[in-house]
Design goal:
Largest sheet: 4 strands, mixed
Radius of gyration: 17 Å
Strand content: 35-45%
Shape: globular
Number of domains: 2
Distance between the termini: 24 Å
Order of helices and strands: EHEEEEHEEE
Mean pLDDT: 92
CATH class of the largest domain: Alpha Beta
Number of strands: 8
Helix content: 10-25%
Length: 150
């Protein structure tokens, strides 16, 4: 495989949020993301943005019933379509207990409480939690407790 462009992971995700600016600020406070770029649309909404957590990049843009179809399909925040999700996001963090406390303090709805997930001596053990952000996106955060044997 050829290397990715400098500073870009092989995979990134994009999220539609009802108010992208508000969502970006929340992701900074609750999850610890930093803002790389925010590009305004002519109407003042967010046309494109990139937020970063370590090497992970998530793009956040406006997604509402009033937003025109982009790239051939409509984009909507899960909260606007009954909470349905077609993907969830997963990130490793350094201290999952502190991360969960911070997210909860900012209003994340924890749907899966912190727990150790041990897949046995031949695999790994992670401590993880799951939560829903204000726009209804499902997130998973984990901290590796044990790597598989080499």
């Amino acid at each position: 495989m050829k290397p990715t462009p400098p500073g870009w992971p092989r995979l990134s995700s994009a999220l539609y949020c009802e108010d992208a600016r508000k969502a970006i600020a929340w992701y900074q406070r609750a999850f610890g993301f930093t803002v790389e770029i925010v590009v305004d649309a002519p109407d003042g909404s967010v046309m494109h943005s990139e937020i970063r957590y370590g090497e992970a990049i998530v793009m956040v843009t406006e997604g509402s019933a009033a937003r025109e179809v982009r790239f051939g399909v409509p984009g909507r925040a899960p909260a606007t379509v009954g909470g349905a999700n077609t993907q969830s996001l997963f990130l490793y963090v350094d201290d999952v207990d502190a991360h969960c406390a911070r997210a909860r303090a900012e209003g994340a709805r924890v749907t899966c409480e912190l727990a150790d997930n041990d897949y046995g001596a031949d695999y790994w053990c992670d401590r993880s939690y799951g939560c829903i952000d204000p726009d209804g996106h499902l997130w998973w955060f984990s901290q590796r407790l044990r790597n598989p044997p080499v």
